Amino acid sequence: MPTEIQTADYLAQRLGAPVIVRSLKQTFPGLSNETWIVQAEVNGTPQGLVLRIEPPEGSGGPNSMRFEYDVYRTLFATEIPVAEALWYDDGLDFAEGRPHMIRRLVDGSTTVDGLHDSGDDAAARRKRIAFECVEMLARVHTLDWRAHGFDQLIPAPASPAECWRHEFGIWQQHWWTHGPYPSPLIEEALCWLEELIPSDSPTVSLVKGNNGIGEEIWKDDRIVAMSDWELTSLGDGLADLFWSQGTLGLADFGEILSHYEARTGHAVSPERLAFTGVFSALKQFICGCAFWYSHFHHRRSQRAQLFSARACFMLEFEHRLGQCIGKPLDEAFAIANKSNKALYTELGRRRS
Amino acid sequence: MIADRSRLFEAIRSTLSDKLLEGLSPASWPASHLRTCLTLLAYLEDLVESEEAILSESNAQMRALLADLAACKPAWLTVDLAGRLAMIGQDASPTIRQREADYQLLRQLLVEVIRSHGTAQRAGQLDADFQHRLRACLTDLNAREFAVAQRSTQMPPF
User: Fold this and answer.
1) What confidence category does residue A29 fall into, taking pLDDT thresholds of 50, 70 and 90?
2) pLDDT at A342
3) How confident is the model at residue B27 (pLDDT cuts 50, 70, 90)?
């Protein structure tokens, strides 16, 4: 855990200027990496910075902190609003040698208060938030990623038709390499889904990964900076509609999907929608189990949240996937998406 | 004296929930840690209730499926795997710890069987009968084993 003095010394060295740290606070939520808000004075000028550090047990996802930093740097040159990533470091005395990056602080919050208030105004607000989220995702998915060199960072599918086979192969290999325990159910789910991979993705897009409330910086119900790019990939952008931490569930999903289709200029076939919805459940299971829970399983960490995430999310996903195996995709979609836990949307619920 | 375990769990739960969590900001790390503990408590309580049935019944079901496979020796089963399946014995594991070890071993064998069949399936050699029996077995295991997560999956993990 960094102290204010250690952080001030480190920043002073890096910035080549005197630094006083007025406050250093770890944000909540933030499970895969530690995020610390630094309110500092650099050469007497107030400055807000964000320090993001990999946990002691290692990354909470398949990609490194360095990867995420490179994504931020590349994105900053685009029209997608992101915080400016200033530098990356690792192997220093600071932060116990752990990989970390420093970003400029963007004014806002990762959670939104009052989302579950009653009344028409609150309902309208929820809809606005959901549409803001899908609008920003559409902007990400229609970005010309080649022009910005994202394929230098991220392996791309050979063609749009190969999007899902490419993605499936990556996550199957993640499970085979990093899965902490044998799961016959997941193994058979992989065999079943492999037979159903669609080939009608219209384009290869930049895909954010986890998104929505808890992941972006919100201010006045708008996303002022998209944050947490640790799961960025190249593939079918539709995948992002199924990892919004419940944000897109704040409005009618049919309306959300229609807006997405209009905004991206491509219709979504029922088969592609159903496969994406089911595969996203499998991908979230593999991500959580192979990269979070495995630290606890292999005794690299005693963080109770790593086990409780398994007890809450991963067992639910595993159970639903088990119910999907062998079923037609539209039935499997209904099972896999029966309810999406609103992970962070309820944090702003007012206490009576 | 053996204590009433449900009262023990309830005492812990009410201390965490009513005495500690109440009054904390939901979006704070202390509240998150307490929510985590409550979720784990629910999981542990359900685990204590159901693990014996899971371990004995699921183990028996996996043993039966793998033993049938060892007897049939389908062409898609590797020689090495067929040999290992033939060595699976009966349940001689009276303790929960030993049953847990058998449970992991049987699951690992079943995973290898599924991968072996998956390779055959990709080559166009689906064994429909095996697939049907496998999926029936997995449906039962899934339903039985979800008993440990009935409550924890309804709770926030952090």
Assistant:
1) low
2) 53
3) confident
Instruction: Closest CB to A184: pick one of B26, B39, B110.
Output: B110
Q: Tokens in use for A264?
A: 């991206």
- Whether residue A188 and residue B152 make contact (CB cut-off 8 A), yes or no, is no
Q: Tell me how far the alpha carbon of residue A245 is from its chain's centroid.
A: 9
Provide the whole-model pTM: 0.92
Chain A residues close to B118, C-beta within 8 Å: 187, 190-191, 194
Render A115-128 in DSSP notation, one character per residue.
TT--SHHHHHHHHH
Rg (chain A; Cα; Å): 20
Q: Is there a contact between B43 and A311 if contact means CB atoms under 8 Å apart? A: yes
Mean pLDDT calculated for residue range B81-106: 88
Distance CA B19, CA B38 (A): 13
CB atoms A311 and B157 under 8 Å: yes
Confidence of residue A348 (pLDDT cuts 50, 70, 90): very low
**B158 and A CB contact within 8 Å:** yes
Sort B6 into a burial class: Cβ within 10 Å, 0-12 / 13-18 / 19+. Answer: exposed
Using a CB-CB distance cutoff of 8 angstroms, which residues of chain A are in contact with residue B148?
315
Q: Least CA distance to A190: which residue of chain B?
A: B118
Say if B3 is an interface residue toward chain A (CB within 8 Å): no
Residue A349 has pLDDT above 50, yes or no: no
Rg of chain B, C-alpha, whole Å: 21
Answer whether B51's CB lies under 8 Å from B145's CB: no
> Is the pLDDT reported for residue A339 higher than 90?
no
Asked if B138 reaches chain A (Cβ–Cβ under 8 Å), the answer is: yes
Q: Is the per-residue pLDDT at A350 higher than 70?
A: no
- The closest of B130, B85, B74, B133 to B108, measured between CA atoms, is B85
Please, how many CA atoms are within 13 Å of residue A302, restricted to the half-sphere of its CB? 0
- B43/A contact by beta carbon, under 8 A: yes
Query: Are the beta carbons of A244 and A211 closer than 8 angstroms?
Result: yes
Pairwise CB contact (< 8 Å): A305 & B158: yes
Q: Supply φ then ψ for residue B16, to 5 degrees.
A: -65, -45
Q: Which chain A residue has the Cα nearest residue B140?
A: A322
Task: State pLDDT tens for residues A113-153.
Answer: 888 889 999 999 999 999 999 999 999 999 999 999 999 99
